[in-house]
Every structure is written in structure tokens, then in C-alpha cells.
Amino acid sequence: MIIYNDKEKAIAAVKEDGGRLQYASDDLKNNKEVVLAAVNQYGGALRFASEELRNDKEFVLAAVKQNCDAIQYASYELRNDKEFILAAVKKSGWALEFASADLSNNKEVVLAAVKEHGWVLQFASDDLRNNPEVVLAAVKERASALYCASDDLRNDKEFVLSAVKERASALYCASDDLRNDKEFVIAAVKQNGDALQYASEELQESLRRFNNENI
Questions:
Q1: Phi/psi at 211 (5° precision)
Q2: Over 50: is that where the pLDDT of 102 sits?
Q3: What is the pLDDT confidence band of residue 215, given thresholds at 50, 70 and 90?
Q4: Where are the domains of the chain?
Q5: What is the DSSP secondary structure assignment for residue 56, as one 8-state letter?
């Protein structure tokens, strides 16, 4: 059903509700100004754009810049295009969620994404979530990104110490075993004096009692 044939009326309509783009004429669904106005209001409106625009690298990047949700409706060709995804994740790391499987396993792409927002590590491949360089980059941006790392890294003493050195609160995201390991926690505190508060409650209480008894 076509309701909008007039460009100005279509722009006014999609500025109120981007989803109204679906009722625009085919010509208007292929009009960059109209579609960008729709995407700015609602990222998912890109799904109603013409196939030509959804495969237009420059245009979709502009859409993603306005609303990162738009990338999920880019063509598969673009979501599998390294140059495009690299540019997209630099604008919004969350674009990694919609990258192809091959690109979510591309170290350069994932590093760029986690440096923009550490939590997008969750969308990386299993191999890269187990890569110390990638995970540390994510932790530097956001300590809680350690939650998204592999279980092996979250339980790796050497790696977690390096993470705690960067961000004390990373200890809170380490494995329960490490957070309750007295020797390890003491080593972590030596790396970063703020780390103790992120150890297990049981160990914090034990260390407090020890300190009180030895004052």
C-alpha cells in the first residue's frame, strides 16, 4: 500500500515515525534524503529502503552514523565487506553484532570494535574471545568486558593480573576461583591497590580479619 508519493510529505511523515517509510513509493524508498530521515528516527527503517540503497556503502555508513541499529538491514554483501564493517565499527562498535561470521573472526575488525566499546567482545568469534591481545583491548575500554572473554582467559592468572593492572574492577569479572584465591588476590592488589574490593566477599572478610588481628 502506497500512501506517500510526495517527497516533502514523506520526509515529514518518517520524521515522526521512521517505519512509515514502508508506505512510500518505490522512488522515495530509493531517495537518500527520505531514507536517512527515516533511519534517523528509527534504525530499522533501513529494511524498507530500496535494495540499491541497502547495498550502497557510502549511504549505509551515513545511516549507521545516525543510528547504529540500521546496519542489521544492510545487504549481506556489505556485512561481509571488511572495509565497510571496519568503518562501521569505528563509528559504533555495536555494528560488530551484524558482521559476517568471517569478519567477526577478523582480528583487525574486532580490535577496532572493542576499542570503541568493550562489551561488543561478546560478538567476536570464540577464537578471538580467547585472544589475550583482543580481550585486553576490550578491558582497557570497559573493565566488565572481561565477562565476555573465554572461560579459559577469565581463569588465567597471568592474563587476569594484566587486566587488573589496567582496570582494577576487571577482577570482579574473573572466575570465581580466582576471586576467592587468596594468593592470587594479594598479587592482584599489588598490581592495583583498588582491586581488593572486587575479590569474593568471603575473601575480603578474611583479609579484613587478618589485618585487624595484626594491627
A1: -65, -40
A2: yes
A3: very low
A4: 1-79, 155-215
A5: -
